[in-house]
Amino acid sequence: MGQTGDIAQTAGASPAPGVQAIILAGGSGTRLWPLSRTLLPKQLLAINGEKTLLQNTLARTLSVFPARGTWVVTNEEHVFEVRGQLRRVDPGLEANILAEPMGKNTLPAVLLALDRILGENSPEAQSGVVVGVFPSDHMVGDVAAWKSCVERGESLARDGYLVTFGARADTPETGYGYIRRGAALGDGAYVVDGFTEKPDLEMARSMVADGAHLWNTGMFLFRADVFLAAVEKHAPMHFAWWRARREKPLILGYGGIPELSVDYGLLERMKRLAVIEAGFDWDDLGNWAAVYRLGAKDQNGCVVQGDVLALDCHDSLLVSRGGKLAVTGISDMIVVQTRDATLACPMSRQQGVKDVVAALAAEGSPLVEAHVTVRRPWGSYTVLEEGPGYKIKRIEVLPGARLSLQMHHHRSEHWVVIAGTAEVQLGERIFLLAENQSVDIPKTTEHRLSNPGKVLVEIIEIQSGPYLEEDDIVRYDDVYGRRVGGADSPEIDRAQKRPEGE
Length: 502
Known about the structure:
The chain is α+β, with helices and mostly antiparallel strands. The protein contains twelve helices and 28 strands. Strands 18-19-20-27-22-25 form a six-stranded antiparallel beta sheet, with no helix packed on it. Strands 6-9-7-8-10 form a five-stranded mixed beta barrel. The protein has a four-stranded mixed beta sheet with strand order 12-14-16-17, with helices on one face. α2 (53-61) crosses α3. It is globular, with a radius of gyration of 24 Å. Keywords: GTP-binding, Isomerase, Nucleotide-binding, Nucleotidyltransferase, Transferase.
């Protein structure tokens, strides 16, 4: 098990009773491509406004839950970006990041966080802990109303209910799950009378018309002992994994457990369930049509973001995150442009974006994984140009930061410093390079780039060789806890074969 995943076992505040929150931030997302990519999914993006969806979720959660008791579960690949975003909300939250080595859906992620929340507390103490679970990539329109719903839910959770939250279903959405209300419990709460997952259009229309169905927001509250008893009954394999955590950390057995959602694994099988009808606007921002629906529209009904020239366009979403986007004479369209990809489709076909991503993945396109600029814990790199046998990058290294000590089997590199003063380790030599100075890095030579100064270092890196993908990195030492190992080390595994770079 690599060091990055160990964050989930060693970092964070000591367990505390009372109320605790788990924010699920591990999804990869495909429906907001090309803006959302595997290495920068939608929860890490600012979709509408300056703050990212994750930052908005954190701010909302902290209005009810203490920072010390707020935990963020994410994927190993996203830890460093999540850490930076948490730092801008509350620096103390950095210690409460839990890293999954791989995505296994929501139930294992919640159990991973519960391991930290409950710690060594006895089963009797666990009954006093109420936990809220919240997706990181949803939009909530009225924070005060959301807070009121959560506070009502806490009371029901303490009475032994697993509490869900349902948004008013006012349109027949086929991409949402639905909750059927049963007997009233008072104060906007009802017994849950059943779930329906992503119905067809005819059924969705019927459920909206009967007024008894709510959209499933994916948020829920529970008492820890109630939740674990449900896991033991309905997901015994996961409970056995959880119970063995005293002998072996959960993170070490993560690869052996099946994927399972809380909804399918527990909620749809439990009896003591309550739903609170949300008094707040909610959307899961699951597709570009949702972004259009929630966006500020101009006089022609268009939502325009970025450097866009729109002539005679109506009722369309037009987004540019790179370069000038010029559009004329279209209606009911989605056009989204980034520096390396453009999506154009009718508003009525927005569900087909996932098929575009699947087709790109099938042909091995890097456009699924990352943008041309990839943020790393030490800074970022941008692919400027590439072709057969060569690739050109601009690398930015933050003050005081350093890349891993590494080498490449198949490529050599040439570095030119264009800003700042870089420290270079090349084999046994360590030396400084100022602006306009350069160095050659032969293949199979250990090397490292560092920024010892107080200003940003920028270099141009020219790679050449028969194979230039990012998995041609053997990492020997890393200050950010990423996996390390020599050329024959068993640590050179899937984590070394991601497009994370340097």
